[in-house]
Each structure stands twice: as structure tokens, then as C-alpha cells.
């Protein structure tokens, strides 16, 4: 009910631009162009374990503001433009994996949010964005559907402020897939989706759970990648790296 009320208010009383704050713009031409012109690129997460990851935006400035407006301030209408951005990252994953339509529909599996977070926000932003992305892909002729089969098995600590290693430990074994979901996962290539990747710990844990249930995970797609100074594990040559590096 809360979600429908927010959408009605957005239609009747357009808000300031969700990206730059331009008065009464909703989403100004410049910020919409930022989303429409986003190009997916491969990023290297800080933790070991995630599949190939593609992101379309950097989590900063207007892009950060738009994501937060959708996620935390209930600007539900932003799911459509953010879904288009996510669809671009999904396409990049599918192309890199060499998937074709004959492989079956792309199965977009959202990383689950904590129940308390969904209740507090009044909606599930990742699932909503994934649904919009799947619709965009279908309209472009690529079969796709959302398959929300990953569940939280236990509560986890707040990830904010944790190092990459501690994030992985915090999430280890926290996600699972219900018995019987293997049949659904066998219908096509699986792409793990999220709105934001910081260290990749959530993507890695979701991919682990899906692979264990029989899913063919071909990669992960996110709307944005966070630039952070969290150190990555040392490379063989002894040099560290940072999350958010494109390759």
C-alpha cells in the first residue's frame, strides 16, 4: 500500500531531480542522459569467489543520488531507468559468457535484502530493479525473467565499515536456495544481480549458493560499482589492488 501511495504522489507532484536536485525535474535531461549513456564494463571485486562482474555506473555524485533516492527515499519510479542500466550490465555478462537465446531465458537472481530492511523501506529495491531490467531485455528480444530464489539463512552484521575479509566471513554460509529450486535454475543461464557492488562478498556468497543448488552462474551484473579504498588481497607479486578497478 505504501508503495502505491508513493508512486501516486510522484505522478501528481513531480519531485526535484533525483540526481542533481534541479527543481521540479523528476529526472532532468542531463541526469537521464547519464543513465541512458551508461556503458557496462567489467570490474574486479576485492574478494575472491564472485563470477565475472559487470557494472554500468560508478557510485558517485548523481548516480549515487539516484540510487539512494530509489532505495532509501522510496522514489519507486526510478526502477525503470535503473532497470535499463542494469539490463546493459546483464547483456554484457551474457555476451562475455557467449550465451544465446537457445540456452534458455536469462535468469536474473537478485541478491536478497534483509527482511527488516525491506520492511523499513516499504519495498525491495533490488528485486524491483531486476524486474524492470528483465522487461527491458524482453522488449529487446532477449528472453529473461527474475528468479528470486536466494534466501537469507541467518542474520548478518551490518557490512558498513567491515574490511573485505570480514565481509566475506560475515556472509559465509548466510545465503541459501530452497530445496526444489534446482529445476527452475536449470531453465537457463543464471546472472546474479544487485544494485551496488562494494567488495563483491554478497555476489560471491549468492553465486556459491546458486551453484550448489545446480544453477549455471555465468556472471553478475550490478547498476553501480563503489570506488573504495578497502584493500584487496595481495597479488602474487606482492602488490595490493583496490575494488572498482575496471579490466
Describe the structure.
The protein has 9 helices and 9 strands. It has one domain: Rossmann fold (3-Layer(aba) Sandwich). Strand 7 (190-197), helix 9 and strand 8 (217-225) form a beta-alpha-beta unit. It is α/β, with parallel strands linked by helices and 247 residues long. It has helices at 2-12, 29-36, 61-71, 79-97, 115-121, 125-139, 164-171, 182-185, 201-212; strands spanning 41-44, 53-58, 106-110, 144-146, 151-152, 175-176, 190-197, 217-225, 245-246. The longest helix is centred in the middle third of the chain and has 19 residues, at 79-97. 38% of the residues lie in helices and 17% in strands. The chain has a 7-stranded mixed sheet, sandwiched between helices. The chain has a two-stranded antiparallel ribbon with strand order 5-6.
Summing up helix and strand content along with how strands pair, one would put the structural category as alpha/beta
Give the low-confidence spans: 1-6, 229-247
Quote the beta fraction.
15-25%
Query: How many domains in all?
Result: 1
- Summarize model confidence as the mean pLDDT: 81
Give the distance, in angstroms, between the N- and C-terminal Cα atoms. 43 Å
Q: What is the rounded Rg?
A: 18 Å
- SSE order: HHEEHHEHHEEHEHEHEE
SS element count, helices: 9
- Outline the biggest β-sheet: 7 strands, mixed
Question: Which CATH-level-2 architecture?
Answer: 3-Layer(aba) Sandwich
Q: What coarse outline follows from CA principal-axis ratios?
A: globular
CATH class: Alpha Beta
Q: State the helical fraction.
A: 25-40%
CATH fold label: Rossmann fold
Order of strands across the widest beta sheet? 4-3-7-8-2-1-9
The count of strands amounts to 9
Amino acid at each position: 500500500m505504501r508503495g502505491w501511495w508513493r508512486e501516486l504522489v510522484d505522478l501528481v507532484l513531480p519531485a526535484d531531480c533525483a540526481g542533481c536536485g534541479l527543481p521540479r525535474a523528476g529526472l532532468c535531461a542531463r541526469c537521464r542522459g547519464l543513465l541512458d549513456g551508461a556503458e557496462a564494463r567489467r570490474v574486479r571485486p576485492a574478494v575472491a569467489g564472485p563470477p565475472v562482474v559487470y557494472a554500468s555506473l560508478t557510485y558517485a555524485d548523481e548516480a549515487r543520488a539516484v540510487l539512494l533516492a530509489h532505495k532509501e527515499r522510496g522514489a519507486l519510479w526510478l526502477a525503470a531507468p535503473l532497470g535499463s542500466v542494469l539490463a546493459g550490465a546483464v547483456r554484457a555478462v551474457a555476451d562475455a559468457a557467449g550465451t544465446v537465446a537457445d540456452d534458455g531465458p536469462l535468469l536474473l537472481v537478485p541478491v536478497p535484502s534483509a527482511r527488516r530492511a525491506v520492511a523499513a523501506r516499504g519495498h525491495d529495491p533490488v528485486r524491483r530493479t531486476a524486474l524492470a531490467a528483465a522487461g527491458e531485455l524482453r522488449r529487446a528480444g532477449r528472453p529473461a525473467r527474475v528468479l528470486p530464489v536466494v534466501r537469507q539463512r541467518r542474520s548478518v552484521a551490518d557490512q558498513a565499515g567491515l574490511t573485505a575479509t570480514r565481509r566475506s566471513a560475515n556472509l559465509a554460509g548466510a545465503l541459501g536456495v530452497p530445496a526444489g529450486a534446482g529445476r527452475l535454475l536449470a531453465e537457463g543461464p543464471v546472472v546474479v544481480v544487485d544494485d551496488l557492488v562494494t567488495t563483491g562478498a554478497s555476489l560471491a556468497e549468492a553465486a556459491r549458493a546458486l551453484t550448489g543448488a545446480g544453477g549455471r552462474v555465468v556472471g553478475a551484473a550490478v547498476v553501480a560499482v563503489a570506488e573504495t579504498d578497502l584493500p584487496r588481497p595481495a597479488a602474487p607479486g606482492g602488490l595490493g589492488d583496490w575494488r572498482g578497478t575496471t579490466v
